[in-house]
C-alpha cells in the first residue's frame, strides 16, 4: 500500500483534478468518492448499439452516454433495493408528449435544455435521423423498434425544430415504453452525417469507435479487451447530476478474480454476480448485494412438441408434476430465484406475470398421467442445456434428470456450446427437452406470450402452436392495459399456459450486483446493464 | 555468412507450403464449426429476416470457393479481415495483443529456464540425491497442476490473503496508464520512456502470471535437461575428459552441457510455441489482454476472420521460432547443418 500512498501525494502534487489522462489515473481510484471502479466479466465491442454484432455488455454504453426521448422511473423494493419501474415513464429529451385522439400519433416536445456534448441543441432532426437509422440498419435494433410498431422512416416526422412526431398504423401500448429501451438513442446527426459516406450513409464506421451524444456521461477512454472509462458530462441538465465523476469499467474474465477484487476492496461494484457468489457475499456481510427479480423473465424447461411424446399434453403435465422445484431454487439458483411452482388453481386469480404455475412435485400424479398417456414404463429422451449458462443450467439439468428417472423417463444430458445454442434451440428449434431463459424488455405478459408462445417466434423453442393463443396474443398485444378485455385475455392466456405447459417455469431469476457499502443508488434494470447515472459514493 | 543467408532463405521457402496449408485448413475448419455467425451477430431478438440480412452483409451467402478466393486475395494485399466481434481489423487486434502475450510468455519461459536448467543439471550430476528428488517433485507438480489452479492459488495467497501482489487486473493496475507505445512490451516501453514507476508497476503485474506459466513450462525443460545431461555424462568423451584430468567444471560446462544443450533448445522452441497459445487460462485468471483470450472469444462467436487470423499468426510465429532455434543449433554445434 506504500505505492498507493506515494501516488496519492504525487496525485495531489501534480494536480489530480487536471485529469483525465496525464500519466496516472487518480491515485486510490477505488478509494476516491468521485471515481467508481466496476469489474465486469466481458468487455464491450462497440459504442454503437445499432451496429451488427454489438454484444450485450455494450448496451450499457448506450444507456450511459446517450439520451432517449423518455426513460423509466426507479422504485424502491421491499428489501430496500432499487429497481426500474416499468409503469412509470419519465421525460428525458422530450419535456412533454401528447397522444392524438385516435391514438395513432405521438408528439414530443423537445426540451431546450437538451444539448449535445459539442454544445449544439438536440433537435427533432437529430431524433428523426437516429430513429431512421434504428429501423434502417436491420438486425436486432429493427426488431426491437418493430415491437413498438415502428418499422419505416416515414413514420418519423419533424414537425418543427423542437417537435417530433411518431405515426403508428394502429394504437399500441408498446410504442411509448419501447422508446425507453436502449435502442432508440439520440445521436448528434450533424457530427455523424459529416462522417457518413455513400457506402456507409449511417456513419456506422465512425459511431462504432466514436460516440456523439448528449448523455450524462462521455466516453473518456476505451482500451478494447481491457477497460473503458466514462467521464461525467457536467453540462447535462436532463436529470439529477450523477454522483460520480468518473467510472472505470475493467474487464476481468475470471469470476473468482472478480470476487477477490470486490472482497479486497479494490473494486467498488461487480455487476451480474453468479447466484452462488451473491449468496455468499450476503452471508459474509462485508460487501453489499443489491438484486431484484428480473421482470418478465423466467427460467423454464421447454418441451418440444415436434418430438414425440411431448406432443401429448398429459406427458407435459406429468413432467411438470415430476420436477424438483424446491431443490432447483435451492441448489441451482442458491435461493436467488422467485419460486414459480405451487400455484393453487388452474385458472389464474389475477394477471400478475410471471406467477406460480399450479404444479408441484407429486410423483403419483406424474405416474398416473404418464400411464394415461400410454407410457407407463416411461421413455428415453435428451435434455439439452447451454454450456455458456452452465452455472445454473448444469445443476438444474442434473436435478431434473434425477427426478425424471423416478417416473421412468431416462433423459440423456446434452451439453451444447454457447455459440451453437441459438442456432440449435431458437433458430432450428430442434432440441426435444431443453432449458430456456427468455426475458422480455417490455414488461407485459402478452409481450412474453408474443415471443415465447406464438408459433414460429424466436423464443418459442417448443414449436408450440395453439390457434387460440395466436388469436388472443394478436388481439391483446397493442391493447391498453386499462381496457376490461385486456385482463380477460391475459387471464385466458395464462390459464392456457398452465394447462398446456409447453414451457414449465422453474423460477424467476434475480439480477444481483455486489458493491462496497459506500456505494449507493444502484438500481436493477430490465436491460441488465449498469446505469451509472444514479450511483453515488461516499 | 552468405551461405548461411541462403540456407535461411531456403528454410523460409520450405515453410511456404505449410503456411498455405494452414490457411486452407483454418479456412475450412472455421466453416466446419457448428456455430452460425449470422445467427450470433444478428443479436438477441433477431428474426429470420434480419438473420438473412446479416448473412448477406457478411458475405456468408456465397459459396466456400468464392469466400476462399476473396480471403486469399485480401491476405495477399495484407488485409487479414475485420473481426466481427470487436469491429476492428484483425491485424490491429493481433498487433495489440501479441506483445502482451509475448511479454508474459517470454518472462514465464525465462523464469522456467533459470530454474529448470540448473536444476536439471544438478539432478543429473547427483542422481537420487535430494536435488534429484526436488527436481522430480517440481516436474510432477508442474505437469499435474492445471495452470488455472496454480494461478488462482497464487492470487489467493499473494493477493487475497497477504496483499503483497497488486490486484490481478491485467498488464497495469488501475492507477497507471500504459506507456507510449513503441514495442508494445510495457516493460521495454516504460524503459524507453524512462518511467521507473510504470516499469515497476508493469513488472509487479507480471510476477504472478509469469510464475504460474513458469511452473508449467518448467517440467518439460527440467526433464529434458536432466535426461540429456545424464546421457552426455555417461558418454565416452566425458569419461575421456575426466580421465584426462580436466576440472569437473570444464567437463560439465564445456563438454557435457554443450552436447546436452541441443535437445534442450529444441524443447524450448516447442514449449515456447505451446505456451503462447496455451496460456488462455492464465490470461483469464489475471485478466491479461492477450492473444489466447482473444482467440477463445473469437471461437465462441464463430468470428471467422479473427480465428483464421489467430491461427495464421501462430503458424507464422511457429515457423520463425523453429527457424531461430535451428540457426542457434548450428551455432552451438557445428555438426548440425541447416539442410541435409
Characterization of the model:
Chain A is α+β, with helices and mostly antiparallel strands. Chain A has helices spanning 2-14, 59-65, 124-136, 139-147, 175-178, 189-195, 204-209, 255-264, 275-284, 313-322, 325-332, 363-372, 390-405, 418-427, 445-452, 467-476, 484-500; strands at 35-40, 70-76, 82-91, 94-99, 105-110, 156-160, 163-167, 217-223, 227-232, 246-251, 269-270, 288-293, 299-303, 337-339, 380-386, 410-416, 433-436, 503-515, 519-520, 523-524, 536-537. Chain B has 340 residues and is mainly alpha-helical. Chain B has 14 helices and no strands. Chain B has helices spanning 2-32, 37-42, 48-57, 64-76, 90-125, 130-144, 147-161, 186-192, 196-233, 236-243, 248-278, 280-285, 291-300, 304-332. The chains are: A alpha+beta (538), B mainly alpha (340). At the A-B interface, helix 1, helix 4, strand 10, helix 8 and helix 14 of A face helix 2, helix 3, helix 5, helix 7 and helix 9 of B.
Biggest chain contact: A-B, 60 and 59 residues
Number of discrete helical segments of chain B: 14
Say how many strands of chain B there are. 0
Query: How much of the residues of chain B is beta strand, in percent?
Result: under 5%
Structural class estimated from helices and strands of chain A: alpha+beta
Specify the helix fraction band of chain B. over 70%
Largest sheet of chain A: 12 strands, mixed
Low-confidence stretches of chain A: 1-28
Helicity range of the residues of chain A?
25-40%
Amino acid at each position: 500500500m506504500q505505492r498507493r500512498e506515494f501516488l496519492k501525494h504525487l496525485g495531489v502534487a501534480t494536480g489530480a483534478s487536471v485529469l483525465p489522462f496525464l500519466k496516472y489515473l487518480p491515485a486510490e481510484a477505488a478509494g476516491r468518492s468521485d471515481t467508481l471502479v466496476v469489474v465486469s466479466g466481458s468487455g464491450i465491442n462497440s459504442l454503437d448499439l445499432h451496429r451488427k454484432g454489438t454484444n450485450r455488455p455494450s448496451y450499457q454504453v448506450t444507456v450511459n452516454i446517450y439520451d432517449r426521448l423518455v426513460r423509466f422511473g426507479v422504485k424502491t423494493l421491499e428489501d430496500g433495493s432499487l429497481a426500474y419501474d416499468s409503469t412509470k415513464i419519465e421525460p428525458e429529451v422530450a419535456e412533454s408528449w401528447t397522444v392524438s385522439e385516435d391514438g395513432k400519433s405521438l408528439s414530443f416536445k423537445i426540451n431546450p435544455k437538451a444539448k449535445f456534448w459539442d454544445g449544439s441543441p438536440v433537435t427533432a432532426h437529430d431524433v428523426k435521423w437516429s430513429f431512421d437509422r434504428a429501423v434502417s440498419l436491420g438486425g436486432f435494433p429493427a426488431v426491437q423498434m418493430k415491437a413498438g410498431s415502428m418499422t419505416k422512416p416515414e413514420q418519423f416526422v419533424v414537425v418543427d425544430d423542437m417537435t417530433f412526431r411518431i405515426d403508428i398504423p394502429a394504437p399500441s401500448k408498446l410504442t411509448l415504453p419501447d422508446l425507453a429501451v436502449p435502442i432508440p438513442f439520440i445521436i448528434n446527426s450533424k457530427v455523424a452525417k459529416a462522417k457518413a459516406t455513400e457506402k456507409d450513409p449511417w456513419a456506422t464506421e465512425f459511431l462504432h469507435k466514436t460516440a456523439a451524444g448528449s448523455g450524462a456521461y462521455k466516453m473518456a477512454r476505451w482500451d478494447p479487451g481491457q477497460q473503458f472509462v466514462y467521464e461525467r458530462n457536467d453540462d447535462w441538465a436532463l436529470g439529477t447530476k450523477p454522483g460520480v465523476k468518473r467510472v472505470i469499467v475493467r474487464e476481468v474474465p475470471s469470476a473468482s478474480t472478480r470476487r477477490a477484487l470486490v472482497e479486497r476492496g479494490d473494486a467498488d461494484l461487480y455487476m451480474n454476480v453468479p447466484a452462488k457468489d451473491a449468496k455468499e457475499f450476503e452471508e459474509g456481510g462485508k460487501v453489499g448485494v443489491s438484486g431484484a427479480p428480473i421482470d418478465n423473465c423466467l427460467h423454464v424447461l421447454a418441451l418440444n412438441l415436434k418430438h414425440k411424446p411431448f406432443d401429448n399434453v398429459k406427458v407435459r403435465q406429468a413432467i411438470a408434476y415430476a420436477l424438483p422445484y424446491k431443490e432447483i431454487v435451492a441448489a441451482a439458483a442458491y435461493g436467488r430465484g422467485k419460486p414459480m411452482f405451487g400455484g393453487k388453481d388452474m385458472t389464474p386469480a389475477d394477471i400478475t406475470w410471471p406467477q406460480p404455475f399450479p404444479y408441484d412435485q407429486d410423483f403419483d400424479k406424474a405416474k398416473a398421467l404418464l400411464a394415461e398417456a400410454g407410457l407407463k414404463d416411461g421413455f428415453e429422451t435428451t435434455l439439452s442445456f447451454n454450456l455458456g449458462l452452465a452455472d445454473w443450467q448444469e445443476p438444474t439439468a442434473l436435478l431434473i434428470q434425477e427426478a425424471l428417472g423416478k417416473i421412468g423417463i431416462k433423459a440423456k444430458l446434452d451439453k451444447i456450446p454457447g455459440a451453437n445454442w441459438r442456432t440449435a434451440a431458437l433458430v432450428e428449434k430442434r432440441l426435444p427437452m431443453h432449458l430456456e431463459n427468455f426475458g422480455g424488455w417490455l414488461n407485459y405478459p402478452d409481450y412474453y406470450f408474443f415471443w415465447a408462445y406464438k408459433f414460429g417466434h424466436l423464443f418459442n423453442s417448443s414449436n408450440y402452436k395453439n390457434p387460440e393463443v395466436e388469436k388472443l396474443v394478436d388481439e391483446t398485444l397493442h391493447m391498453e392495459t386499462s381496457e376490461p378485455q385486456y385482463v380477460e385475455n391475459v387471464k385466458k392466456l395464462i390459464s392456457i399456459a398452465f394447462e398446456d405447459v409447453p414451457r414449465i417455469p422453474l423460477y424467476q431469476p434475480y439480477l444481483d450486483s455486489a458493491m462496497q457499502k459506500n456505494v449507493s443508488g444502484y438500481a436493477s434494470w430490465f436491460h441488465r446493464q449498469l446505469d451509472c447515472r444514479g450511483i453515488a459514493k461516499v | 555468412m552468405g551461405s548461411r543467408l541462403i540456407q535461411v532463405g531456403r528454410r523460409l521457402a520450405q515453410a511456404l507450403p505449410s503456411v498455405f496449408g494452414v490457411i486452407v485448413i483454418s479456412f475450412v475448419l472455421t466453416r466446419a464449426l457448428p456455430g452460425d455467425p449470422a445467427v450470433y451477430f444478428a443479436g438477441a431478438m433477431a428474426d429470420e429476416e434480419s438473420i438473412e440480412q446479416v448473412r448477406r452483409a457478411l458475405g456468408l451467402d456465397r459459396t466456400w470457393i468464392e469466400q476462399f478466393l476473396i480471403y486469399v486475395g485480401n491476405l495477399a494485399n495484407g488485409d487479414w479481415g475485420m473481426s466481427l466481434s470487436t469491429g476492428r481489423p484483425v491485424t490491429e487486434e493481433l498487433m495489440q495483443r501479441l506483445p502482451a502475450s509475448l511479454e508474459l510468455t517470454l518472462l514465464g519461459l525465462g523464469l522456467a529456464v533459470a530454474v529448470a536448467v540448473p536444476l536439471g543439471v544438478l539432478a543429473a550430476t547427483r542422481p537420487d540425491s535430494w536435488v534429484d528428488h526436488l527436481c522430480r517433485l517440481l516436474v510432477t507438480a508442474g505437469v499435474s497442476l492445471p495452470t488455472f489452479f496454480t494461478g488462482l492459488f497464487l492470487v489467493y495467497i499473494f493477493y487475497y490473503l497477504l496483499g503483497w501482489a497488486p490486484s490481478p487486473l491485467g498488464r497495469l493496475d488501475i492507477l497507471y496508464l500504459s506507456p507510449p507505445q513503441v514495442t508494445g512490451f510495457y516493460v521495454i516501453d516504460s524503459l524507453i520512456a524512462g518511467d521507473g514507476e510504470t516499469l515497476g508497476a508493469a513488472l509487479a503485474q507480471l510476477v504472478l502470471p509469469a510464475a504460474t506459466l513458469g511452473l508449467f513450462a518448467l517440467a518439460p525443460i527440467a526433464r529434458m535437461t536432466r535426461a540429456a545431461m545424464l546421457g552426455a555424462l555417461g558418454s565416452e568423451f566425458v569419461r575421456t575428459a575426466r580421465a584426462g584430468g580436466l576440472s569437473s567444471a570444464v567437463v560439465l560446462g564445456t563438454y557435457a552441457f554443450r552436447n546436452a544443450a541441443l535437445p534442450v533448445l529444441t524443447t524450448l522452441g516447442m514449449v515456447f510455441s505451446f505456451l503462447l497459445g496455451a496460456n488462455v487460462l492464465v490470461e483469464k485468471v489475471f485478466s491479461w489482454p492477450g492473444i489466447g483470450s482473444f482467440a477463445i472469444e473469437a471461437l465462441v462467436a464463430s468470428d471467422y476472420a479473427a480465428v483464421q487470423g489467430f491461427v495464421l499468426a501462430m503458424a507464422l510465429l511457429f515457423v520463425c521460432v523453429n527457424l531461430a532455434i535451428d540457426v542457434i543449433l548450428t551455432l552451438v554445434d557445428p555438426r548440425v547443418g541447416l539442410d541435409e
